[in-house]
Amino acid sequence: MSEFLDILKHYDVLGAFWVNIQLTFWGALLALVIGTVLAVMRISPLSSLRWAGATYVNIVRNTPLTVIMTFLVLAVWTQLKISLAHDFALNFFLFAVVGLGVYHAAFVCEAIRSGVNTVPAGQAEAARAIGLPFLAAARIVVLPQAFRGAVAPLGNTLIALLKNSTVAVAASVATESSGAMKTMIEFRPDYLWPIFLTFAVGFVVLVIPIGLATTGLSRRLAVTR
Amino acid sequence: MVGGNIVGGIVVAGIAVWVLVVLAGKGQLSPAMWGPAVDARAWQFYYLPGLENTLRAAAFATVGAVVLGILLGMGRLAHARAVRWVCSVVVEFLRAVPVLLMMLFLNAFFGTAMKDVVADSAFTAVVVALVLYNGSVIAELVRSGVGNLPRGQAEAGLSVGLTPGQTLRSVQLPQALIAMLPAVVSQLVVVLKDSALGQIISYAELLRSAQILASGGGNPLQVLFVAAVLFILLNNLLSWVAHRLARRLSGRTAGRTQVPVTPDVAARRTVRPAAA
Q1: Could you give the ipTM of this predicted complex?
Q2: Which domain CATH number covers B119?
Q3: Residue numbers of the domain that contains B207
C-alpha cells in the first residue's frame, strides 16, 4: 500500500488531473463562445447564416473527436506548419483546447437551442414589436431566458467535455490523465488495477459534483411560467 | 432581409474561399497530394480494411451494449432494493469514467492477465469498453423509457393479477424498448465515433489505417479529410435511420418515440423547467 502511494507521488497523478481541469476550463470557454455564436446564427432570420450554422453542427457532431485531435496535430501543425505557441508543450495544449472547443461548440449550440425552445414565441414577438432589431432582441430578451432553460444540457456538455479532455493524448498532450495512466501501466503493470481505479474514481469524484450542481442550478434558475 | 441574407451568404462563402486560397498557397490542393489519398490502392489497403474493422468493433459493441443496457436497466427498476442499489452504482460509475481510460486499462488487462484467453487484446478492449459505457447509457434509456409510459400501463398489468416483475417484463419493457429504439440507433453514432479511440491503443480501425497511409504519403490533411468524410456519411445515415424509425414506430407504443437532440450528452436525466 505504501509502495503504491509512492508510485502515485512519483508519477504526479494530481498534476495529471489538474491538466484535465485546465483543458476543460479553456475548452469550455471556447466552446461556449463558438456555440453561442452558432446558436444565434441558427435562430437568425437570415437563411444563409441558419444554413451555415446547421452545416457546422451537422459536420462537427458527426466527426470523432479523435479525428479532430489527430487532424490538428498531423495536418494543421505538421503539414501546414501552423503553430499556436513557441513552447512545444504549450503548443499541443492549445491545439487540444482548440479541438475540444470546436467539437463541443456543436453540442453547446444544440443545448442553447433547446433552451431557446423553452422561451415562448411571444417573448421574441414582443421584443420585435417594441422595435428591437434581431440581435438586440436575442441579446436582451431571448438568450438570457434560453440560458436558464439550457443549464441542464449545458451541464451535460461540460461533463462530456471533462471526460473527453482525456482524448487530448491524441493531440500529444502527454501530461494529462490518460497519458499519465498509460505511462504508469507500462512501467508498473503489477499495479494495473489500483492504477486504473485511482484514475476512474478521480473522474467519478469530478463528474458527480458537476451533475449535482447543474441539476440544482437548473431547478433554481428555471423561468416559472 | 434579402440584403442581409446576401451579405451573410457572401461572408460564409468568403471564409470558404479564403480557406481554399490559403490551402492552395501551401500547395495542398495539388493532384500530387490528393491522388495518393483517393486512389485504388488507398481504398483497397487502407480505408476499406479500416472501415471493416471499425464496423466490426461497432457491431459487436452495439449488440453487447444493448444486452448489458437492458440487464442494468431492469436491475435499476427491480423490486429488490439491493439489486437496484448495485445496478445504480455500476451505471453511475460506468457513465462517469472516460471511455479512453477503460480502453487503455482493458488493453493492458487483456494483454497481460488474459493473454491466453484473448487473442486480439486491442479489438477486445475497444469492444468491451464501448459495451460498458454505452450499456450504461442504454440502461438509462430503458429506465426513462419505462418511466415515460403512461401510468395506466403498469396499473392495468397489476390489476389483471400480474406481479410487479411480470408487469415490467411483459407490459412495460416491450413498449419501452420500441419507444427507445430511435434513441438507441442514434446512440450508434456515439459508438461509431468512440470506436476511433481505438487508434490510441493501435487497433487498426479507420483512423489508424488512415494515419498509416498518411505517414507513407506525407499527406495527412488529405487522408484524414477522406476518413472524416467517411465517418460523417456513416453517422448521417444512422441519424436518418433514427428519425425514420421514430416516425414509423410512434403508433406501436404508448411511450414517446423521440430522437435525442445530442445523443452524447442528452442521455443524462434532464430536468424539465417547471411547466415549460
Answers
A1: 0.93
A2: 1.10.3720.10
A3: 38-252
Q: Do residues B245 and A88 make contact, with C-beta atoms less than 8 angstroms apart?
A: no
A146 contacts A112 by C-beta, under 8 angstroms: yes
- Residue in B99, B109, B271 nearest the CB of A218: B271
In-domain check, residue B5: no
Q: Is residue B13 part of a domain?
A: no
Is A166 within 8 Å of B196 when comparing Cβ atoms?
Answer: no
Cell for B107?
488493453
pTM: 0.91
DSSP B106-168: HHHHHHHTTTTT-S-HHHHHHHHHHHHHHHHHHHHHHHHHHHTS-HHHHHHHHHTT--HHHHI
Nearest to A79 among B92, B95, B220 (CB): B220
Three-state secondary structure call for residue A176: coil
Best of A166, A169, A188 to substitute, by most chain B Cβ atoms within 10 angstroms, is A166
From A143's Cα to the closest Cα of chain B, the distance in A is 16
pLDDT tens digits, chain B, 276 residues: what are they?
678 888 888 999 999 999 999 999 888 998 888 888 889 999 999 999 999 999 999 999 999 999 999 999 999 998 889 999 999 999 999 999 999 999 999 999 998 888 888 889 999 999 999 999 999 999 999 999 998 899 999 999 999 999 988 999 999 999 999 988 888 988 999 999 999 999 999 999 999 999 999 998 889 999 999 999 999 999 999 999 988 988 888 877 777 776 765 544 444 443 333 332
Counting the structural domains of chain B, the total is 1
Would you say residue B200 lies in a domain? yes
- Evaluate whether residue B11 is within a structural domain: no
From B244, B267, B247, select the one nearest B257 (Cα to Cα): B247
Contact A63/B at CB under 8 A: yes
Architecture of domain A2-221: Orthogonal Bundle (1.10)
